[in-house]
Amino acid sequence: MTDGVIVTGSSTGLGLETALGLAANGFRVYAGVRDLASAPAVRAAAAERGVSVDVVALDLTDRASIGAVVDRVVAETGGVFALVNNGGIGLRGCVEDVTPDEIRRVFEVNVFGTIAMTQACCRTCVQRAGGASSRSRRSAGGSRPSASACTARRSSPRKASARR
Fold this sequence. Notes:
single chain; 4 strands; alpha/beta; globular; 49% helix
């Protein structure tokens, strides 16, 4: 079986380029897009490069959507080989001009959606590896893995990288 890789946020930009690059290197890529209306453009970009990708509907705020994609990858490739968390949304405006609901939406997609996607894929990585976890032993803050959610909020990237 070919190694299955999920790339979130694959409709344009860095996500699309990542998906195409991985496909060119022999991976079976599942290009996650929020809106399937972008699927023809993704497939056209892949055809221009002489590669193919499986375009899948993926809403990072919908656990059923996440589960369906992960289940498909597992069924078709035996497990998730890798996940590239690229999906996200932006919000422009001064803090006094944006609403709390707009800010919550950004966090729902960019933070909680990324976590949900990672959790869903980690479960299959553990199964694929025969019970051995493929997760990093160091969390974002550099402490024990079980404290990653806590330390991620306390450590800046500079502090975390300085500890390595």
